[in-house]
Design a protein that fits this description.
The chain is an alpha+beta fold. The protein has one domain: Domain of unknown function DUF5300 (Immunoglobulin-like, Sandwich), CATH 2.60.40. It has a 5-stranded mixed β-sheet. A 4-stranded antiparallel β-sheet has the order 3-2-5-6, with no helix packed on it. α3 packs antiparallel against α4.
């Protein structure tokens, strides 16, 4: 019985990973960027924390993808100063990163789980696991969300994920076997 449960968990977690074409074979890598545009590639590695949660990615308020574990999303944009946002609609907090990008350039951005956010949720998560019943479930969820909200309050980069720009040479060593995040 334990083996069946373990298998079900593994299949469930695998289902949360990106499933599209590998980056090395994808037009985001194989096709040049238009001379008057820039390309943004956002990627996420394999991490246990938040592995079942997809990050919604926006540039200047426009949603351009839902980023899954071991995946990437991309978008061609005009050259200017932009704000990249990673968020999970059902979670407290968001991460904003302001960046500039030049014509013909590809900018790579790594989305990673924020440990501080997970730690802030721990009391509610423990209460949820230990206390049976509806009332404790509601209270533990409130504790989880309150912890996340307090941890992210006033931060430009709060919430479940962080976003950092990665130099192209380093990004390309990390991203080649990641798959496009598709629905």
């Amino acid at each position: 019985m334990r083996h069946l449960i373990a298998l079900a968990v593994m299949v469930g977690l695998w289902g949360c990973s990106a499933t599209g074409a590998k980056f090395r074979d994808h037009p985001a890598y194989t096709e040049p960027v238009s001379r008057d545009l820039a390309r943004v590639v956002v990627f996420r590695m394999d991490k246990a924390q938040n592995s079942t949660v997809a990050a919604t990615m926006e540039i200047d308020g426009l949603v351009f993808g839902t980023l899954r574990e071991k995946g990437f999303v991309w978008h061609d944009i005009d050259t200017a100063t932009h704000v990249l946002r990673a968020d999970v609609p059902s979670e407290q907090g968001t991460c904003l990163l302001t960046f500039q990008i030049a014509a013909g350039e590809t900018g790579y951005f790594l989305v990673a789980p924020r440990a501080a956010n997970a730690v802030a949720k721990t009391p509610g998560t423990i209460a949820n696991a230990l206390l049976p019943g509806i009332a404790p479930l509601i209270l533990s969820e409130m504790a989880t969300q309150t912890g996340a909200m307090l941890e992210s309050a006033g931060k430009r980069c709060g919430g479940p994920f962080s976003v950092v720009r990665v130099p192209p040479a380093k990004a390309e060593t990390l991203i080649m076997d990641l798959r496009e995040s598709v629905k």
